[in-house]
Specification:
Distance between the termini: 25 Å
Order of helices and strands: EHHHEEHEHEEEHEEEHEHHEH
Number of domains: 2
Number of helices: 10
CATH topology of the largest domain: Ribosomal Protein S8, Chain: A, domain 1
Shape: globular
Radius of gyration: 21 Å
CATH architecture of the largest domain: 2-Layer Sandwich
Strand order of the largest sheet: 2-3-4-11-5-6-7
């Protein structure tokens, strides 16, 4: 029996350069292409491969269709110092979120907190990819997102999809390793359902319902006519919790930005809430980290239940995976690379070479 080939690994810098090259060739300005590519590769480094380079072919199609704005700046709709609202004008989502973080962090240094809410951003990729930079600066970062033109999740007790998986993310320092959480308020994500449906695979658990409300493991029910639904966090048993969190995200994104599901759909995109808190303006950074470090250490010291090696912090496994992949190369599936090959050929940007690192 022939042994299967080992998974392909690629240097993170080569993947970022490849992504940047494709986006520039498609017309995106170099600085924005670099930000978008870096965020996508950061997602892959952390292990969020549905929201890494897997998104790049879709972004390139959006550019080709004229659905993503490539130049210009967001329009400031309101600015009260600690609270800012932008119209993102469907500019590249990762670039917009990074700019929003920079402004929110600047305002947090002045006021203790800074919030930038963005309406009409294009897709913003993986929320976890934004978190480590804030924790490294001693700041707390909250990022919430909703997709007002998409409906794949039904409210608890219902069968008609109303909103998106509405992820929420938070990052903050807690000693040697920051806490980084990125959680969809639904039990799984749109991109994972699309991948499984494309590959003809099923979920291991009934995280979906069909249009008649019957539990299902088949992702095709989400794309049927009439469509089924992804269940909120908690599923059929405790889904009221995910439902409540989803409504909170809707209020902080579409509600605060003043634009969302009540308006005409404009295509694939996002409303985003970006908030930074500076612990120095509250109880002080040293005491903030003393408290978060104590709780983090206590969690790690908790006796693990049978079958668990050790208790980890949220994001800890992702950061370990990132360190390993920076050293040995990033694991990228053949399916993701195959989807990028036509774009490589079309734009004359060479595919990345496999990493030689061991």
């Amino acid at each position: 029996m022939t042994a299967s080939a080992p998974p392909a690994r690629y240097a993170a810098a080569d993947l970022a350069a490849f992504g940047r090259g494709l986006l520039e060739a498609a017309g995106m300005p170099p600085d924005r292409a670099a930000d978008v590519a870096d965020v996508l590769v950061e997602a892959d480094l952390l292990g969020h491969d549905t929201h890494g380079l897997n998104l790049l072919p879709i972004y390139l199609r959006e550019i080709e269709a004229g659905s993503m704005t490539l130049t210009g700046d967001p329009l400031t709709l309101a600015d009260r110092g600690a609270a800012v609202t932008w119209d993102g004008r469907r500019l590249p989502g990762p670039w917009l979120v990074l700019r929003a973080y920079e402004l929110a962090a600047q305002r947090a240094r002045l006021h203790g907190t800074g919030t930038v809410v963005i309406r009409r951003s294009h897709h913003v990729a993986c929320l976890a990819a934004y978190l480590e930079r804030a924790a490294a600066q001693g700041l707390v970062l909250l990022v919430y997102s909703s997709g007002p033109s998409t409906r794949t999740v039904a409210p608890f007790g219902g069968v008609t999809p109303v909103y998106t998986p509405n992820p929420l993310a938070a990052g903050f320092p807690a000693g040697d390793t920051p806490v980084m959480l990125d959680v969809s308020t639904s039990i799984t994500t749109n991109n994972l359902m699309a991948r499984l449906n494309r590959e003809g695979r099923r979920l291991e658990h009934p995280w979906l319902i069909d249009a008649q409300g019957r539990p299902s493991t088949d992702p095709s029910v989400v794309f049927a006519d009439p469509p089924g639904s992804i269940l909120p966090i908690g599923g059929l048993d405790h889904g009221h919790k995910g439902y409540a969190l989803s409504l909170m995200v809707e209020a902080l994104t579409g509600g605060l930005s003043g634009h969302g599901r009540a308006d005409t759909a404009e295509g694939w995109g996002a409303n985003v809430f970006v908030q930074v808190l500076d612990p120095e303006a509250f109880g002080g950074r040293d005491d903030f980290e003393r408290q978060t470090r104590f709780v983090a250490d206590a969690c790690r010291a908790s006796r693990p239940r049978p079958g668990v090696d050790a208790v980890r912090l949220p994001g800890e496994a992702g950061l370990r995976r990132k360190a390993d992949q920076l050293a040995r190369g990033v694991l990228i599936s053949d399916a993701i690379l195959d989807a990028l090959r036509p774009w490589s050929s079309r734009h004359g940007v060479a595919m990345p070479a496999r990493s030689t690192a061991m």
